[in-house]
Automatic annotation (TrEMBL):
<dbReference type="InterPro" id="IPR019479">
    <property type="entry name" value="Peroxiredoxin_C"/>
</dbReference>
<dbReference type="Pfam" id="PF00578">
    <property type="entry name" value="AhpC-TSA"/>
</dbReference>
<keyword id="KW-0560">Oxidoreductase</keyword>
<protein>
    <recommendedName>
        <fullName>Thioredoxin peroxidase</fullName>
    </recommendedName>
</protein>
<dbReference type="InterPro" id="IPR013766">
    <property type="entry name" value="Thioredoxin_domain"/>
</dbReference>
<dbReference type="InterPro" id="IPR024706">
    <property type="entry name" value="Peroxiredoxin_AhpC-typ"/>
</dbReference>
<dbReference type="InterPro" id="IPR036249">
    <property type="entry name" value="Thioredoxin-like_sf"/>
</dbReference>
<dbReference type="InterPro" id="IPR050217">
    <property type="entry name" value="Peroxiredoxin"/>
</dbReference>
<feature type="domain" description="Thioredoxin">
    <location>
        <begin position="3"/>
        <end position="178"/>
    </location>
</feature>
<dbReference type="Pfam" id="PF10417">
    <property type="entry name" value="1-cysPrx_C"/>
</dbReference>
<comment type="function">
    <text>Thiol-specific peroxidase that catalyzes the reduction of hydrogen peroxide and organic hydroperoxides to water and alcohols, respectively. Plays a role in cell protection against oxidative stress by detoxifying peroxides.</text>
</comment>
<dbReference type="InterPro" id="IPR000866">
    <property type="entry name" value="AhpC/TSA"/>
</dbReference>
<comment type="similarity">
    <text>Belongs to the peroxiredoxin family. AhpC/Prx1 subfamily.</text>
</comment>
């Protein structure tokens, strides 16, 4: 796949479940452009094992994202009805009851394909039949940090068994916002409150002038 860094995030118009119980037919990321940053994360499937730990982890830190002007959005290839059923199941039974941020239903798998996280691809067979090759037809654990202009500024994709660190996502939001506010770049292991670095050099200056 080609990197989406520095490019416009692929458009999304799909059905989603919002506020834990409401189906929205024409959910878009475009509604946040110019207003909020977006953390869009993909997970493989509803009613699994690692996935609920991640969805709950994002919910537990939702206040920290909101304080930074960030909208969290989840996405999987399951239907909106599967999302609703999972949202209605208590946490102690493997459910995600209490999750309030939007969860997109990528039933056509085109969103996962457009973001380069689908675990395989569709190919034409010898008799023009459609075949799926290269793994399970679900999304890897992809995550994309999208700025207010709709540009992808950070992305990471984990294999199915590897859960993500939500604290690391918050650190990347802080780094991006520090850069935007002060024009300073953030070195390895930088965290909010630590010293950053002055951005010098023609290449960086050119970049800053375009952003």
């Amino acid at each position: 796949m080609k990197s989406l860094i520095g490019k416009k995030a692929p458009a999304i118009r799909a059905t989603a479940v919002v506020n834990g119980n409401e189906i929205v037919q024409d959910f878009t990321l475009g509604q946040y452009e110019g207003k909020k940053y977006v953390v869009l994360f993909f997970y493989p499937m509803d009613f699994t094992f690692v996935c609920p730990t991640e969805l709950h982890a994002f919910q537990e830190k939702l206040g920290e994202f909101e304080a930074r002007g960030v909208q969290v959005v989840g996405c999987s290839v399951d239907s909106e009805y599967s999302h609703l059923a999972w949202l209605g199941q208590p946490r102690n039974r493997g459910g995600i009851e209490g999750v309030k941020y939007p969860i997109i239903a990528d039933t056509t798998k085109t969103i996962s394909e457009n973001y380069g996280v689908l675990g395989g691809e569709y190919l034409s067979g010898e008799e023009d039949e459609l075949l799926f090759e290269g793994g399970a037809p679900v999304a890897y654990r992809g995550l994309f940090l999208i700025d207010k202009g709709g540009i992808v500024r950070h992305m990471v994709i984990n294999d199915l068994p590897l859960g993500r660190s939500v604290d690391e996502v918050i650190r990347m939001v802080d780094a991006l916002q520090h850069f935007e506010e002060y024009g300073e770049v953030c070195p390895a292991n930088w965290a909010k409150g630590k010293d950053a670095m002055s951005a010098t050099g023609a290449g960086v200056s050119d970049y800053l002038s375009r952003h």
